[in-house]
Amino acid sequence: MTLPAGDRLGPYEIISLLGSGGMGEVYRARDTRLGRTVALKILPEAVAADPERVRRFEMEARSASALADPRIVTVFDVGAERGIHFIATELVEGSDLRHLLEGGPVPPARVIEIAAQIAEGLAAAHEQGIVHRDLKPENVLINRSGAVKIADFGLAKQTDRSSGDLSQMATAAADSTATGIVMGTVAYMSPEQARGARVDFRSDQFSLGLILYEMAAGRRAFARGNPADTLSAILRDDPPPLASASPGMSEPFARIVHRCLEKDPERRYGSTSDLAHDLKGLVASSPSTVAAKTSPPLRKFVIPLALALAAAALAAFLFLRHPKPVSEPINSLAILPFVSSSGKADMEFLTDGITESLINKVSQVSGLRVISRTSAFHYKGREIDPAKVARELDVRAILTGHVAAVGDSLSVGAELVDARDGRHLWGEQYNRKISDVFAMQSEIASVIATSLRGPLTGQEQGRIEKRPTRNLAAYQEYLKGKYFFGRSNPGDLEKARAAFEEAVSLDPDFALAHVGISGCYGIEGSASYLNPTEAWPKSREHAERAIALDASLPDAHTALAAVYLNHDWDWAAAERELKRAMTLGPVDLSLAEPNDLFSFYLAAMGRLDEAVAAEKTAQKTDPLSPFLAADLAQEYYYARKFDAAIREARRALELQPDSVFGLTALGLSFVMEGKSEAGIASLQSAVERSGGESFNLGNLGWAYGRAGRIADAKEVLRRMEVSSRERYVAPFDRAMVEIGMGNADAAFAGLDRAVEERNAWLIFLNVEPMFDPIRADPRFAKVVARVGLPPPKARTS
How far is it, in rounded angstroms, from Cα 663 to Cα 645? Predict the structure, then answer.
């Protein structure tokens, strides 16, 4: 029975029928709560009485709803009313891959780009333990901007319960009544599916290989006259070499395809993430073919199983009111803090979060340098002169905006100007529900990027559309956590961690919130706010959880690298994770810049010139960050370039007068320069600003001892003893004071305990100037060996 326009299923008002098939009818409908257009898939009355079909219908909803990735269609809702079972999903305006294939072989660069996007989506599903089992061109959707989404997880199985039940597949195929559906499904089966054997994620790799072969060659790898012969060929025959079937395709791509088409699953990829990584590597060397001039025209229609771009209203804005690109592409941008019309703290978190989200999303676009969060927020609360800001940040374009909220309604206005001449490039006012904040942020980011750089690739559009979570309350807690995380004081870190933990309790699969928790524990462990034996294992737990949820997050790999570097002392693993993070793109969390942490790795390895260069690389997109300025000062301090260290430390303090890190670098460098009193004054300020934390007390006590103020140094030790009754005091920090006073035995006793606790500062044993008085002692070499550091390089100065 066809539902008439105006009929209601729960909150969904029927607009029109889009299509129908054995597994359901699909309607265009309106969600009356949120005012968005959706695709509403229902199970027909004729089969709703069949428990097995209802079970498979609900299985499709559960499988798809477990996946949150820009390459996979998203389920909004599932329910039943009046005996009618339904799923509400995103609606896509575009085409499926089958229609693209009807034009013959796809241009090589476009093949590779689509292939990488499909593989990324599959990798995300496989990481959640879900195998598609029915991957074919009809289930690969391409929206108008060229982004790919994988649809119809109706045959999906959780891998721990997966079994090759051929009868189930035959039943599912028989459900479809459209001509060619059975043949299409059979044509993309893996050998293990065809045999009725157990399948896992590698079955999807085989199906993807068949799709890629067809895109490149313009014909199927196992084209036969009937389903039985096709299945026989899949089981027994080798496909013709892709190099001969498609001479225009590169040899590396052909090797990837034929690896996917191995009959033995063990000879395919060990993880689909590795497959996606190889394909993405080819994308970088291939010209983009997203523009209409280089791609066969798409026949535009509404996909019956829809499920792609955020609401139809947003799609209409993007495609009907898209700004025209500037005549000369602009390749640098600063997104300044949006202004809130409310003084409420929760609105400040949301307003800052919108700004930060736009920074992160627009940063995903290649060829566009976007100033990082810390430098952009240097202008928060200040009167903005676009030309002056552009000069200070060395950018061409400036985006400003404002946010207002009343009840559950949100109003956001944004304006983009060319700072060179003050020319207005684009502006718009958005009035939405707060619950639509994710879609709105993606929309604004897409419009900005397109207006500056021109059409986006499908991969870039997909990254912009990616949502960190679908739980608004969890997102708000995450924004609160970011706010406090950026301040990095002990009390603020506790507040940040509490907010991140609340976000995870609301959405356990919120990967960035896990990164936030990991980062808090990492800073607390390295700064002696917590015992390293307590802090670092928790930091590792959440970093690994974040990677398991989203392996594409550079923040997650940086967080795990921090554990490898500061706690495990596994230098190779730390370098691997940092390089992985640097290839994945910009980070979302402040203090998570991989180049910054990489500079400390290089310093620990004694590669000090490279450490300084890596820190300067981090500063290119964050020139006004007091944290990076202080870290550069520390790198110069390790390199014994104390004049440069003092210069950078002063710059950090100009940017943030209460910067504990800046005060510490300044004080230590002054002392090493022989300016003990100036250095002690700076280190005293660091102790006051940090609330008397033991790390800063250790630096001050060392300076007292070096200056001959033994009574003051002993008073620091006494303060540490008193403090230890209430909070953690690191043995490493006590050892610093003993070194300053010349007490080598006590210093080594403290260092031995620090090694047992795996204190993070021990990684700098070979370069820290404080250790010079005990460096020749044989016991020092033993400490270095226990940490596992390479032998120190001979110094030339």
Answer: 11
Which helix (H) or strand (E) is 541 found in, with range? helix 532-549
Per-residue DSSP letter, 72: B
Question: In the chain, what percentage of residues exceed pLDDT 70?
Answer: 84
Query: Is the alpha carbon torsion for 26, 28, 29, 35 positive or negative?
Result: positive
3-state secondary structure of 231: helix
What's the pLDDT tens digit per position in 160-206?
433 333 233 333 333 332 323 333 368 899 999 888 788 899 999 99
User: CA–CA separation, 510 vs 72, rounded Å?
Assistant: 17
Weakest mean pLDDT among 167-181, 206-220, 480-494 = 167-181
DSSP string, 65-124: HT---TTB--EEEEEEETTEEEEEE---EEEEHHHHHTTSSPPHHHHHHHHHHHHHHHHH
Structure tokens at 516: 């936030």
Spatial distance between the Cα atoms of 105 and 310, rounded to a whole number of angstroms: 30
Letter for the amino acid at 785? A
Active site amino acids: 134
pLDDT given for residue 229 in this prediction? 83
User: What pTM was computed for the model?
Assistant: 0.56
Q: In the sheet that 148-150 helps form, which strands lie side by side, from edge to edge?
A: 148-150, 140-143, 93-96, 301-302
Query: Given this model, what pLDDT does residue 312 score?
Result: 31
- Give CA–CA dist 56/62, Å, rounded: 10
Query: Which residue reads 């602009």 in tokens?
Result: 330
- Location of structure tokens 């180049």: 595
Average pLDDT over residues 213-233: 87
Q: Would the pLDDT of 768 be above 80?
A: yes
| Averaged pLDDT for residues 340-365 | 77
Query: CA-based Rg of the chain, rounded to a whole angstrom?
Result: 29
Is residue 297 packed enough to be buried (19+ CB in 10 Å), middle (13-18) or exposed (0-12)? exposed
Q: CA angle at residue 115 from 192 to 97, to 5 degrees?
A: 85
Alpha carbons 74 and 62: distance in angstroms, whole number: 11
Non-local (6+) Cβ contacts of 34 within 8 A are 311, 433, 435, 436
Q: Among the listed ranges 442-456, 540-554, 724-738, which one has the minimum average pLDDT value?
A: 442-456
The pLDDT of residue 57 is above 80: no
Q: Supply the DSSP string of 667-725, one letter for each residue.
A: HHHHHHTT-HHHHHHHHHHHHHHHTS-HHHHHHHHHHHHHTT-HHHHHHHHHHHHHHTT
Confirm if 699 and 686 have CB atoms less than 8 A apart. Answer: yes
Among 96-110, 221-235, 326-340, 651-665, the range of highest mean pLDDT: 651-665
Token pair, residue 594, equals 């991989």
Burial classification of residue 268, based on how many CB atoms lie within 10 Å of its CB (0-12 exposed, 13-18 middle, 19 or more buried) = buried
Q: How far apart are CA 705 and CA 623, in angstroms?
A: 36
Query: Using an 8 Å Cβ cutoff, are 117 and 148 in contact?
Result: yes
Helix axes 710-723, 694-706, angle to 10 degrees: 160
- Contact (CB, 8 A) for 412 and 441: no
- Percent of the residues in the chain that have a pLDDT greater than 90, as a whole number: 38
DSSP state of 261: T
SS3 at position 30: strand
**Region for 417 from its dihedrals, namely left if φ exceeds 0, alpha if ψ lies in -120 to 50, beta otherwise:** beta
